[in-house]
Amino acid sequence: MSGRSLDGLRVLVTAGPTFEDIDPVRFIGNRSSGKMGFAIAAAAAAPGAATVLVAGPVALDTPPGVERVDVRSAAQMQAVVEAALPADVYIGAAAVADFTPARPATAKIKKRAGGDGLVLELVRTADILAGVAAHARRPRLVVGFAAETGDLEANARDKLARKRLDLIAANLVGVAGSGFGADDNTLHVFSADGARVLGPAPKTELAGALLDIVAERLQRPR
Ligand code: C5P
């Protein structure tokens, strides 16, 4: 970070995928590695922010100084996030599942039970980010992420408005060298009155640059 620290503030970050159980051995997941959210938590904690990281199932070490809570499903992530409020800043970098099995089976589903196919009924998960932005204890700054395969700005601006965010960091996925699993990325950061491009750069560097924008916004008169 370039000088403007979040020292003394409470920063709540989500990272990684969520796993939605179908039965005791199977689940619906996604390709999120958690690297971006972990890099953000590390960059917030280093200069002195009290940082809570709510992590889905990932294989990453906890950054120094970060309080980490591991969760598995979207419902668990939502409960932990809400219990962790209030915070000054919320950064939703997790790739939260949009749908979860309506009735997870308590025993392993057998092949023969489905005949030639199996129909799984899915229901929508709660939108954690939109919930935080509409919360009675809304953080001063709420930041979302958007992983898009096209129409980056239009989709990101739609989410910014619809979920009532202050900032949204959008990136293209399905493009070589960016997005899920990669160490480098390019972030397009949109606010109601601006747009900035960060990178291409390592996710650790992008995390610092994004937090600089957050710190700058927090200094604006309310
Ligand atoms: O609408 P979409 O899923 O693309 O929005 C992505 C943003 O919303 C991310 O910041 C993600 O963490 C958040 N999100 C959430 N809860 C959901 C779905 C997405 O917090 N159920």
Give a concise summary.
This protein is α/β, with parallel strands linked by helices and 222 residues long. The chain is built from 5 helices and 12 strands. It is globular, with a radius of gyration of 18 Å.
Entry keywords:
222 residues; alpha/beta; Rossmann fold; 25% helix; globular; binds cytidine-5'-monophosphate
Q: What report would you give on this structure?
A:
The model has no long low-confidence stretch (mean pLDDT 94). Strands 5-4-1-6-9-10-11-12 form an eight-stranded mixed beta sheet, sandwiched between helices. A two-stranded antiparallel sheet has the order 2-3. A two-stranded antiparallel sheet has the order 7-8. The chain is globular. The protein has five helices and twelve strands. It has helices at residues 35-45, 74-84, 128-133, 152-162, 203-218, and strands at 10-15, 20-23, 26-28, 50-55, 66-70, 89-92, 99-101, 122-124, 141-148, 167-172, 184-191, 194-202. Helix 1 packs across helix 5 (203-218). The protein has a single domain (4-99, 121-218), classed as 3-Layer(aba) Sandwich (Rossmann fold). The relative contact order is 0.17. It is of the alpha/beta class and 222 residues long.
